[in-house]
Amino acid sequence: MADAPGPDASGSPDGTRPTTGELTDAQRSLRAQMLATEHWSLLASRSTTQSEVLTRIAIYLTLVSAGLVTLSVLGNVTGFRGWFGVAALGVLLLLVLLGLITQKRTFNASLDDLMFVIAMNRLRGAYLDLDPGIGPYLLTSANDDEAGSAQTYYPFSPRPGQIWASSAMIISVVVAAVIALFVGGVVLGLTGPIWLAITLGLLAGLGSIALWMRSGYRGYTAVFRLHSPLRTTSDD
Questions:
Q1: Three-state helix/strand/coil letters over the chain
Q2: Would you kindly state where each structural domain of the chain is located, as residue ranges?
Q3: Whether pLDDT at 11 is above 50
């Protein structure tokens, strides 16, 4: 006898949305309680993730500020000669490494937030299966596809420029500036001309932003490539 097909990512053996038409009132009530518990768990996890990543960004910005102030004090003490160059490159290298770590965590948190939104959209779809009459009262989406996640982030209209004001973009710009300073400092330390230091530093900073944006886009598209939605906006 052939094995029965196992459930896929949708939670149903045949990949279709599970029905609730044959549930008793007691079963509907129990299912609503369990879904609400999962919903609150997702909300708490989303809030904790956002708080943690914003704290990391604040710590990094404080370190950058403290590092630059330290370099200015050292410059005044040493007259920007002697061991100042080595100290400056050491401080900038440390800020670059800490920035890359913070940047990676920020991009991971952005994907985590997208996962939370998709999961809560799916739960709203389950609420509609239990009681279709609540549909008009939901401002955010009950569709766990890409269009549904975009509606949940901002229900009133498309927001194509949202990424430019995100935490990921803020940390990307700051880290790119630190990388540019470090690369320019290395070029000057090797007795390179000032124009070459500025050019290579600018290219390194812009390249860093481009690489991280490409990485973030690939992570975003991978989410919807691997995810199998139960409800799609086109069905509505």
A1: CCCCCCCCCCCCCCCCCCCCCCCCHHHHHHHHHHHHHHHHHHHHHHHHHHHHHHHHHHHHHHHHHHHHHHHHHHHHHHCCCCCHHHHHHHHHHHHHHHHHHHHHHHHHHHHHHHHHHHHHHHHHHHHHHHCHHHHHHCCCCCCCCHHHHHHHHCCCCCCCCHHHHCHHHHHHHHHHHHHHHHHHHHHHHCCCCHHHHHHHHHHHHHHHHHHHHHHHHHHHHHHHHHCCCCCCHHHC
A2: 25-230
A3: no
| pLDDT score, position 68 | 92
Residues near 27 by beta carbon (within 8 Å), at least 6 away in sequence: none
Q: Which two tokens stand for residue 94?
A: 């440390």
Structure tokens at 55: 């704290």
Distance of alpha carbon 3 from alpha carbon 22, whole angstroms: 26
| 8 Å CB contact between 179 and 208 | yes
Lowest mean pLDDT among 12-26, 28-42, 93-107: 12-26
